[in-house]
């Protein structure tokens, strides 16, 4: 049974698949290597061992930055999601004076190269002796994550029918109650996935972290950077593998959460 | 009846006062962590210790720094071109697939996108170092006697950066290609166009907006890229970002670092402005 | 190059997964005929058209155009014209460039193709709009340009996939006439897909009715209307009243027979095909039911005035019947009798 070929040759499709493999391969290669027992990374690994994972979990050099990054990430998720959701609401439902300026500001951290922000923040935090502090990290990462939160919540709000909120008002609910009982549950999955994205952005953020980390208070990416620069120890492979798994998991959860916004409406 | 307070959320939209209240935390954060620091840095580059353009002039007058600027522009252009060449076929393939095949291809693009840059750059190091995977495989197959130095070349930097930035090219291209109705391709075929002619005359022109977006994004990201050139490149591949890092962490030369950042920002803003004008002009072309 | 080609479709079968979209369809379309493929959505009419065009390859069967086997030929080599329902014109080209496109693909030089494009646009009375962009044209104008583009290279066959469905009513009727005139002047074979039976009946020389991938009937519009071969065709084309009944004896196709209607009355009808004794369905059109003093008993339940005609809902011993006649001054009395001529009613399987 002959089927219609799509436009273009098999050659182009083969090339495209090769590019897809090119995209995935390097990260995938690290995974089996992290389970190798040798002092130096070997491919293919000569055996199976969890010693590098053990090395990670037993080393305070690694655990402390990890905990710090987790703390920063969670706080960033809370701060960025709250502020970002409020802005999104104001942009969609509000009459905002200087709307164009606000929209430009939302795009700001996306257009401006991160290195520019990083240097500027380092200058300011250094002068204020805030380098390496939780406050500095959360502030910086929140600014960076904000655009993504706003875009995600905007998408959820556009999908949500504003008339439902009006219906609640006509039933006698106050504006705030209508928001809490009708709008919020409907956009909750979108808000949740925005929070996940904010967390990932903060947790994985390498550039700003590099500059505003201190000797004793550094983020996990900064620690990884140092490790890569000085010695490529297999512990790094274990960390890289775990990070990739975490990212993939967060991505899947965020994706599923976003899909459920369209699948169901506000809860009764 | 008492007039409702200005902060009451009344009517179909929120009042200006309430809207402003909603945007306040956002404004505060961006002011403190974005606007003010950048302004402080730029001020440093222009007014310390006296109002001067000398810091900016240095970039263009000193050959070493000019070389770095040109190298950054060149590498950014090379990365953009590679990303376009590699990304277009994949975006096209994705636009023509459905179901699980599309899901798989999307995963191949989205997973690297959301994986940490450090992890991906680290993977390249693992592949390319003197005792890395490629050298191991080559010596294992008896093709080489001693390890090849694959790192610290401009080609490696371009390849690694292309790998990291490829998703930013593919996604807008995919969106653009996906939006082209199937009827156009079919009409072209029925009217006698070969597959290649249909692509050249119909699909390609209609995908240009997506291609332009992707190229702009990849170019801008390449200009300010730090992590990959810092780890995969050596001193001969210094780019603007690594230069400014050196100025700040080793030399504490804030004014000059500010000038480099200022130059980078100027280039970025000019490009974005040009792009916006072009995109809007495009709409008028349709009306002429 | 001949001005028109015949189309021969033999035992065409096309499946999509578990669904059989086209089920062993045979069609013979002589050169120069205006042929309509009519049916509800999912009937297979679009799939047949796509197979003729070359966008779908059949699972079995063959397609010949002008005697040439094109079954597995790619679309660009079939030399057919085609007009789609929407997204027809290339948005990034001017109107003239759109019309000249097929000539460009055939290697015609710039001067010639610009001239021929202008001529084609003049044929559809849009000669002055060549420099505009498609977005600046109305829906009707866009379809006229699409038409010009499809005929500029004088293909022997023109395929049309519900080209008027997206237009509003008045425009549609105007375009129907335009297409008819075009075909009369240029003489090519046209295969026209539509779900609108009025459109098919007014435009086509012959119509094929499809349902569920199967061919129900092919014939002239009159034959389809006056002698529907199946209950589906009777119900799909025009309006029909259906009345379940019982046959005392088996009957041959075309024979006149008396049946017992549900409710007890007897009536006469022509059998559309050979039928066994037992349950059957009688079909009679609203305008063929005559009211008077003799016949079956009925009561007028409602009268619906619609300008050119009046429809009555008649309560009977069986189902409610719709009766239609031209404008009248006096409506029949509430209790009335109705009847029909035997050749105006047809019998179908139950």
Question: Could you please describe the fold and organization of this structure?
Answer:
The complex is a heterotrimer of chains A (268), B (288) and C (350). Chain A is an all-alpha fold. Chain A has a single domain (54-263), classed as MetI-like (MetI-like fold, Orthogonal Bundle). Chain A is built from eleven helices and no strands. The radius of gyration of chain A is 23 Å and the shape is globular. Chain B has 288 residues and is mainly alpha-helical. Chain B has one domain (51-287): MetI-like fold. Chain B is built from twelve helices and no strands. Chain B has helices spanning 16-47, 54-61, 63-95, 99-114, 117-128, 133-140, 154-178, 182-190, 195-223, 227-232, 240-249, 254-287. The longest helix of chain B is centred in the C-terminal third of the chain and has 34 residues, at 254-287. Mean pLDDT of chain B is 87; it is low at 1-11 and 284-288. In chain C, the strands form four sheets. A six-stranded mixed sheet of chain C has the order 6-7-8-3-9-10, with helices on both faces. In chain C, strands 11-12-13-20-14 form a five-stranded mixed barrel. Chain C starts with 6 loop residues before the first strand and ends with a strand. The mean pLDDT of chain C is 91. The chains are: A mainly alpha (268), B mainly alpha (288), C alpha+beta (350).
Task: Sum this structure up briefly.
The complex is a heterotrimer of chains A (268), B (288) and C (350). Chain A has 268 residues and is mainly alpha-helical.
Measured by residues with Cβ under 8 Å of the partner chain's Cβ, the largest interface is: A-B, 86 and 93 residues
Strand segment tally of chain C: 20
Task: Name the shape of chain A in a single word.
Answer: globular
**What is the correct CATH architecture of chain A?**
Orthogonal Bundle
CATH topology name of the largest domain in chain C, in short, is Rossmann fold
Give the full name of the CATH homologous superfamily of the largest domain in chain C.
Answer: P-loop containing nucleotide triphosphate hydrolases
Q: What's the assembly state of these chains?
A: heterotrimer
The tally of strands of chain A reads 0
Helix/strand class of chain C = alpha+beta
Please tell me the CATH architecture of the largest domain in chain C by its name: 3-Layer(aba) Sandwich
Low-confidence stretches of chain A: 264-268
CATH superfamily of chain A: MetI-like
The average pLDDT score of chain A comes to 85
Rg from Cα of chain C: 24 Å
Q: What would you call the shape of chain C?
A: elongated
Helix content of chain A: over 70%
């Amino acid at each position: 049974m002959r089927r219609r070929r799509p436009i273009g040759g098999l050659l182009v499709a083969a090339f495209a698949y090769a590019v897809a493999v090119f995209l995935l391969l390097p990260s995938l290669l690290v995974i089996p290597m992290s389970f190798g027992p040798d002092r130096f990374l070997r491919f293919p690994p000569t055996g199976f061992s969890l010693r590098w994972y053990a090395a990670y979990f037993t080393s305070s050099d690694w655990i402390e930055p990890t905990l710090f990054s987790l703390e920063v990430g969670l706080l960033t998720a809370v701060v960025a999601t709250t502020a970002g959701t409020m802005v999104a609401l104001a942009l969609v439902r509000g009459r905002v004076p200087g709307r164009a300026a606000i929209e430009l500001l939302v795009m700001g951290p996306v257009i401006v190269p991160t290195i520019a922000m990083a240097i500027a923040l380092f200058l300011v935090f250094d002068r204020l002796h805030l380098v390496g502090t939780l406050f500095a990290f959360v502030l910086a990462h929140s600014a960076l994550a904000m655009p993504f939160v706003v875009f995600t919540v905007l998408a959820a709000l556009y999908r949500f029918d504003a008339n439902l909120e009006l219906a609640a008002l006509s039933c006698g609910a106050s504006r705030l109650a209508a928001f809490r009982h009708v709008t919020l549950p409907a956009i909750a999955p979108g808000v949740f996935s925005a929070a996940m994205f904010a967390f990932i952005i903060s947790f994985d953020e390498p550039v700003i972290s590099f500059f505003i980390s201190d000797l004793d208070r550094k983020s996990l990416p900064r620690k990884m950077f140092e490790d890569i620069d000085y010695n490529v120890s297999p512990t790094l492979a274990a960390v890289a593998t775990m990070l990739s798994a975490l990212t993939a998991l967060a991505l899947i959860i965020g994706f599923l959460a976003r899909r459920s916004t369209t699948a169901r409406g506000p809860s009764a | 009846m008492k007039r409702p307070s200005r902060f009451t959320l009344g009517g179909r939209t929120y009042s200006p006062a309430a809207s402003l209240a909603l945007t306040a935390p956002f404004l505060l954060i961006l002011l403190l962590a974005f606007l003010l620091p950048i302004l402080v840095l730029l001020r440093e580059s222009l007014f310390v210790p006296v109002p001067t353009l000398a810091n900016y002039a240095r970039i263009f007058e000193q050959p070493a720094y000019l070389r770095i600027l040109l190298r950054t522009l060149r590498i950014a252009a090379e990365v953009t071109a590679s990303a376009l060449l590699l990304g277009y076929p994949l975006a096209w393939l994705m636009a023509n697939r459905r179901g699980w095949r599309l899901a798989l291809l999307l995963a191949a693009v989205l997973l690297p996108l959301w994986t940490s840059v450090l992890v991906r750059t680290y993977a390249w190091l693992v592949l390319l170092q003197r005792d890395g995977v490629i050298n191991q495989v080559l010596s294992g197959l008896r093709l080489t006697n001693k390890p090849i130095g694959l790192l610290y070349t401009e080609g490696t930097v371009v390849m690694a950066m292309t790998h990291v930035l490829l998703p930013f090219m593919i996604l807008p291209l995919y969106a653009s290609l996906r939006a082209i109705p199937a009827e156009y391709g079919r009409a072209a075929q029925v009217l006698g166009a070969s597959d290649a002619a249909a692509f050249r005359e119909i699909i390609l022109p209609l995908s240009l907006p997506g291609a332009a977006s992707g190229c702009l994004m990849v170019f801008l990201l390449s200009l300010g890229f730090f992590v990959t050139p810092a780890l995969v490149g050596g001193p001969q591949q210094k780019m603007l970002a690594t230069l400014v890092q050196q100025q700040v962490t080793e030399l504490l030369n804030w004014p000059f670092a500010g000038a480099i950042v200022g130059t980078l920002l100027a280039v970025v803003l000019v490009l974005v402005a040009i792009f916006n004008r072009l995109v809007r002009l495009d709409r008028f072309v349709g009306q002429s | 190059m001949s001005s028109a080609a015949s189309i021969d479709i033999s035992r065409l079968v096309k499946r999509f997964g578990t669904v059989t979209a086209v089920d062993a369809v045979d069609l013979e379309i002589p050169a120069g005929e205006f042929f309509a493929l009519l049916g509800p959505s999912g009937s297979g009419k679009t799939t047949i058209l796509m197979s003729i065009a070359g966008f779908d390859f059949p699972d079995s069967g063959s397609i010949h155009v002008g005697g040439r086997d094109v079954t597995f030929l790619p679309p660009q080599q079939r030399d057919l014209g085609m007009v789609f329902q929407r997204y027809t014109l290339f948005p990034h080209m001017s109107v003239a460039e759109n019309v000249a496109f097929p000539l460009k693909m055939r290697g015609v030089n710039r001067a010639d193709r610009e001239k021929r494009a202008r001529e084609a646009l003049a044929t559809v009375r849009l000669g002055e709009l060549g420099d505009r962009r498609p977005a600046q044209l109305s829906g009707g104008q866009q379809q006229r340009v699409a038409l010009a583009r499809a005929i500029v290279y004088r293909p022997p066959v023109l395929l049309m996939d519900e080209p008027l469905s997206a237009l509003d009513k008045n425009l549609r009727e105007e375009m129907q006439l335009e297409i008819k005139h075009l075909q009369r002047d240029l003489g090519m074979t046209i295969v026209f897909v539509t779900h609108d039976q009025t459109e098919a009946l007014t435009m086509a020389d012959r119509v094929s009715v499809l349902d569920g991938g199967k061919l129900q009937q092919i014939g002239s519009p009159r034959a389809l209307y006056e002698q529907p071969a199946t209950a589906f065709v009777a119900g799909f084309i025009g309006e029909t009243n259906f009345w379940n009944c019982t046959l005392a004896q088996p009957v041959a196709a075309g024979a006149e027979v008396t049946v017992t209607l549900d409710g007890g009355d007897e009536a006469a009808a022509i059998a559309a095909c050979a039928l066994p004794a037992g349950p059957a369905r009688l079909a009679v059109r609203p305008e063929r039911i005559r009211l008077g003093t003799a016949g079956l008993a009925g009561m007028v339940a409602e009268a619906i005035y619609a300008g050119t005609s009046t429809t009555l809902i008649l309560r009977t011993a069986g189902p409610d019947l719709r009766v239609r006649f031209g404008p009248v001054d006096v409506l029949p009395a509430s209790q009335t009798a109705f009847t029909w001529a035997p050749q105006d009613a047809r019998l179908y399987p139950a």
